[in-house]
Design goal:
Number of strands: 6
Helix content: 40-55%
Number of helices: 20
Structural class: alpha/beta
Order of helices and strands: HHHHHHEHHEEEHEHHHHEHHHHHHH
Length: about 450
Amino acid sequence: MVQLTSAITGAVALAVCSEDSADAGGLDLQEVHEACRVSNIRPGNIWKTCCDPLRYDGFGSSSCFLLQGWDARSCCSALEPDNFTMDIWRSISRSPLGPVAKSTNSSGSIIVVYHKSGATLSYNLHTSPDLLRLLVGAQPSEPKWTRVLWTPSSPSWQRSVFVSKGSWRWMTYWVAPSEMAEREISNYLAEGARLVHMVRKPSEWIVSAYLYHLNEFEPWAVVVDPPNCNNCDHGAWRSIFSGCDFNCSYQEILRTSPTERGVEIEIRRSRWEILKMLHNMKLWQRANVLHLSLVHYSNDFDATVKCMLTFFLEGRQKLVHGKKMQALLAAARAAGLRSKLYKKDLQQVLQVEEHLWMLALQEEHRFLADADALYDRLMIRGQKEMARLGCPDWKKWVPAVSRVLPWIASAVHCVGLELERPATLMRAFAQYSVVRQCDRGMF
């Protein structure tokens, strides 16, 4: 994966422009200059040293700014080079896939999640006493968060780490890691730790995230000082909140925007996490990594739990069967039920999907179709191993129709026809898939 890292580094070098020409983008220019006055760092080096999302995500460096405070956002959003995230995306999408790396054995297990890729479900499974006892053994001490970046101005679990140590193994739950520059997790993988990577198709991620953030409570989504978009990239933060003069919460701006505008805002908010997920999917092409999605769970919950347990335990200890497995599955189902806190209205889901694919025709958001295609390609690459472990299908019902819908819309758009008809087609075809997901409460 050296090629992938080199490509990203090269993209950053091409993207970085002179900070003397930074655009405040609606922020007070004097405040931006004050925020960017960092001691012992030359003005021309501030972006790379203090802001670079490859190393710091949207937080900025804690050695330069207060974590996620006004200074980091004001300074870094003004300095972010034009097309920064799109240059990163092009580097990720064009870098070649290497062979699947072999694995040694170790006592470590890792679950990696992102906001809206199954974080709550994975945490509830991870902390289920019966499952944890099987995976790590008797625990001499309570599991604990060993790294938390939660602050009053950024109340979220981004980049946080939760560790459980047992009598014979350890297990780590890792939230939204960035492996683009500093590879913490990749070092564990090289030593043979096993990793379940919870992923989600980008278009499904955005639809689910928009409706969740519109209707449900998240601490970070209601703060205004400064407004927060859960560790989105700096350019997205500026674009999202400049419309309210940086004086509204994320949920407030969604609720006061028409659906199409709200979906576009969610695309911008989610894009950095999606880039990280796809980067990690390409980076972690290893025998000791299993890429699981919420669709696995919605297609067959019990089979997915068995698949995950087989992946973690195979070659380490004897697999469980019979009554003991049934007891574990019952515990897993209870954990799963605690994760299904809300359901979405089918008509709302279809409406948001329709708006999403209309937006995907615009130049700024055309990466979405390519991101979905890359996701599919990476999942297909691992499906033989998934099947061997007993995982259910990773695709939604009628996946072939769903995959061609954006291209149907594009084709109609290219010949100059009205978009109302393809939107109707999309609604009709998508309904079969979405009903299945909504009925199971996993969408």
